[in-house]
């Protein structure tokens, strides 16, 4: 069971970074080293309920501080005019110290994550994109998380000389994926396994969204709706969201952020 914490304090991050970039042609390779600390860090802490010992409460708490020392390598490569690859890899030593449920702790681990994005641009004003993400095991104050990975694909089609674009995205490209989490504390031990949904296809339906334009943006010709000015040009905005999400949200209620994206189309005279 989750509960809030009105006494939660703000966390502060301090970091020192140094990097080097090596451009070669249309490609670029970069290496960055960093040292990063977080003070007053907050994390969900699990404990037994004092009134019902069969109930576990999860409450955000300021538990202490952490430190990350690592290297990040990224490469932006275009082997051909129509294909681009962006690869990142991050390896870091992580240390977390503090107190959880009155028990002092100090935990550390060497962990990593990487990502890859491939983008192909076709002559038909179409872009194809394949992306993947892989994370190594991570630790927390009271437990740890197993390896996690995901992959997705997307197709973007441009219209009206790239003034308008529509995107179709498929998440969980590898099907249902599972990851595990272990947690320990005074009087309890949990072993959880989570499974993501299978293939998820994001379908978009265009919806015209009116915008209020200030008189100075409209060239002094009074207020207008349905567009705005950017860089001296008039633009009109559409909001794309699944019809099912709009029905759930209601006719006037905003659509949830995960289901909504904005499309801007230039209005030429």
Radius of gyration (Å): 24 Å
> What is the 3D form?
globular
Structural class: mainly beta
Strands, count: 19
Element string (H = helix, E = strand): EEEEEEEEEEEEEEEEEEHE
Largest sheet: 9 strands, antiparallel
Oligomer: single chain
Could you name the key traits of this structure?
269 residues, mainly beta, 2 domains, nine-stranded antiparallel β-sheet, four-stranded antiparallel β-sheet, 1 helix, 3% helix, 67% strand, globular, disordered C terminus
Plain-language structure description:
With 269 residues, the chain is mainly beta. The chain has 2 domains: 12-202, no CATH class; 206-269, no CATH class. Helices cover 3% and strands 67% of the residues. The chain is built from 1 helix and 19 strands. The strands form 4 sheets. The chain has a 9-stranded antiparallel beta sheet with strand order 1-2-3-4-5-6-9-10-13, with no helix packed on it. Strands 7-8-11-12 form a 4-stranded antiparallel beta sheet, with no helix packed on it. Strand 7 and strand 8 (143-145) form a beta hairpin. The longest helix is centred in the last third of the chain and has 7 residues, at 243-249. The termini are far apart.
């Amino acid at each position: 069971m989750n509960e809030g914490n009105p006494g939660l304090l703000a966390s502060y991050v301090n970091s020192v970074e140094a990097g080097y970039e090596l451009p070669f042609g249309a490609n670029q390779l970069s290496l960055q080293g960093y040292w990063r600390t977080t003070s007053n860090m907050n994390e969900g802490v699990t404990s037994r309920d004092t009134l019902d010992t069969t109930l576990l409460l999860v409450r955000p708490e300021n538990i202490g501080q952490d430190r990350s020392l690592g290297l990040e390598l990224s490469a932006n490569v275009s082997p051909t005019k129509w294909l681009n690859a962006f690869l990142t890899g991050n390896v870091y030593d992580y240390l977390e110290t503090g107190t959880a449920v009155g028990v002092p702790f100090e935990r550390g681990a060497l962990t990593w994550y990487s990502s890859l994005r491939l983008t192909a641009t076709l002559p038909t004003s179409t872009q194809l994109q394949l992306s993947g993400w892989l994370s190594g095991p991570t630790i927390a104050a009271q437990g740890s998380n197993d390896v996690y990975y995901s992959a997705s694909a997307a197709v973007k089609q441009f219209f009206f000389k790239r003034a308008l674009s529509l995107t179709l995205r498929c998440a969980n490209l590898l099907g249902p994926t599972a990851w595990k989490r272990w947690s320990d504390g005074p009087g309890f031990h949990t072993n959880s396994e989570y499974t993501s949904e299978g293939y998820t296809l994001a379908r978009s339906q265009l919806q015209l969204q009116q915008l209020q334009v200030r008189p100075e943006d409209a060239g002094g010709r009074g207020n207008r709706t349905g567009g705005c000015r950017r860089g001296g040009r008039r633009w009109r905005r559409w909001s794309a969201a699944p019809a099912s999400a709009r029905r759930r949200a209601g006719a006037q209620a905003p659509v949830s952020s995960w289901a909504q994206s904005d499309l801007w189309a230039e209005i030429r005279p």
